[in-house]
Structures are given as structure tokens and as C-alpha cells.
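Field reference: sequence -> structure
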Amino acid sequence: MNGIDIVIPWVDGGDPAWRAAFDAARRSDPLGPGRGPGVPVVATGGDQNASEIRYRDWGTLQFLFRGVERFAPWVRRIHLVTWGHLPAWLDVSDPRLRVVRHEEFIPPEYLPTFASRPIELNVHRIEGLADRFILFNDDMFLLRPVPQERFFRRGLPCDMARLSLIAPSTISHTVLNMTEITARRHSRTEVMRRNPGKWFSPRYGLAGLLKTLDLSVWSGWAGLADTHMPQPYLRETFETMWLEEREMLDATCRARFRSPFGVNHWLMRYEQLATGRFSPVGFADSRLDELSEERIATIENCIRARRYAMICLGDSPLVRDFDSVRARLQAALDDILPEKSSFES
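Structure field:
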């Protein structure tokens, strides 16, 4: 299918109907939040993976739409994935928009779900989705023009193949699972031998090249550098992995709530990197940051100065005054994207 689509999963954690369904599922989940059949059970130190910050709405989704329309006009269609609610400002009549409810593409055995992974791991099932698409999170924004070639070049997704150690974090078990699957499927030395120019591209910068060179003396996979940015994919990668790695994908999707275990959509990214089905790209035009009182001034400056083409702003339990930080973030985004998009009523 021609063209490039964008997929944006979104949830309004303040919707009373969604909240009632969420609370009912938490009470009835026989395995506890964040687990599913076949997913390892390890103490997590509390129900942090179903916490409020995973679902609260920063009121910034319209700026994602404005940025796409203004800075990426080559996008064919936006698929907004939702539990059922919609932003009050959204104009669903725009022909470039498709609202997709969970039950329209997620297999019924995985519903209801209140986790991002069953949604993201099944996006290839969305009817009418282009063969090439970019998976956004609703905390990712375009701040200046980006050409189509930033995401796809010669029909292949643009990405960075860099080796990296797996650092301890709330997601490290997931990354380890995906690295283990990738190691079983592909010899790291053979992967790099087949595509040396893609693993040692000057686009990655000197520091990235030196880290990959240092870790390449290992016989196996040390890990892969993860970017936390809008991720381009080939639809067929998802189809292949569901055929060949269904057991783990199925187990992950049966978890109703966010889990530190199982796998996430990066498994498909790792497969694209290991098979050489990507074009090298650097990430000097991107920034990952975390919202907090201490960081908001720096974030405001980055947005208003448009220092980066893309920025991802993760939520954080460090935010003490949510309303204040949200208002400052909205004001900064509105300064560079003040005009409504055609997706707004």
C-alpha cells in the first residue's frame, strides 16, 4: 500500500466510563496488575505499573496533530487509536483521520486492555493501515519540518543500529526478553558482517560508533540502544513476528495492565535491525526529556527555540504541581503551533 501513515494510541484517564472499566478490571484481574499467562512473575515493589501517571492527560494531543500537519504534510493518514473516548476538539470528518477503537483491531481474547503493549503489538491489524507506518506516543511532538526521508529511505525505515549495555530500569526485564529472542533468531556477528555499513554508519556520531566497536568484541548480543522516538515500521515485520514468535507475543498481550515483563513493540524494531531492513539515521535532531518542575524551564526553551525536530516528554512521579507544569508545557507548544489544524473543530 502506497504512502506513509501515523498511528497514535491515546487514552483519556479522566473519562468516568473508562475509569469505571479500569477499576473493575483491576479488582477482577486474577493474575494481578501487569501479568498474563506465560509472563514471568517477579516482585515489582508495588503496583507502580498501573499508577495514575500512566493514564493522565496533559492536554497536548492537539499539538501533535498540528505538528504533523505543518511539519510532515507528506503523511497519508493518521490512525488515532482509542478505548472509545475522543478529545472534545477533534473533527472526525477530516478524510486523513481514522479513529480506531480497540475492538476494531485487537483480538477479543486480549480485551479489555489498559496497557499499551497489547495495543502497539497489534497495530498491524488496523484495517487500511499503510505498509509503511510510524508509531507515535502521545507525548511525542514535531517542532520543525521533517522530510519523509527522515523516517523512510528507499522504502526502508530509518533507524540507528547501535550496541549498548542493558541498564537496570523498570523496563530492563522487557529489553532483556527482546534481546534474548533476537539472539536466538540471529547471530550478532553474522548480522554485523552482512551489513557493516549499517552498524558503523558515520550518521551515528563518534561516541555511538566507539560504543558499538567496544561491545562488538563480545560473542553475543550485549543489547541495543533504544531511541524512545517516533518509530517507523514495515507492517510485514509485525506479521512475520506474530507467525514466528506468537507464544511470547500472546502472553504479553494477555496482561491487562502495564508490565515490566513480556515484550513491547521494540521487538519488531530489533528484528528490522537484525535483518538489515533499515536505513541508517542519526538522532542529533531528537531529544528525550522527562517532565518535572526542575526540567520544565529547559523544556520550554527547547520547544520555543525549536532546537530539535522531535521531542519526547515522558510523564514522571516527580511532578508535584501537575496543573502548573501542564499549563507551562501547553503555552510553550502553543507559541510555536498557535493555529488550529484541520483536525480541530
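Note: The mean pLDDT is 91.
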